[in-house]
Amino acid sequence: MYLKKIELQGFKSFADKTEIELRDGITTVVGPNGSGKSNVSDAIRWVLGEQSIKALRGTKAEDVIFVGTQSRKSLGFAEVSLTIENTNGKLPIEFAEVTVTRRLYRSGETGYFINKTPCRLKDISELFMDTGIGKDGYSIIGQGKIDEILSNKSEDRRNIFEEAAGIVKYRTRKLESEKKLEQTKLNLLRINDILTEIEANIEPLQIQSDKAKKFLRA
Ligand code: ATP
Question: Which of 11, 13, 104 to mutate to test the pocket of ligand 1 (most atoms within 8 A of CB)?
Answer without folding.
Answer: 13
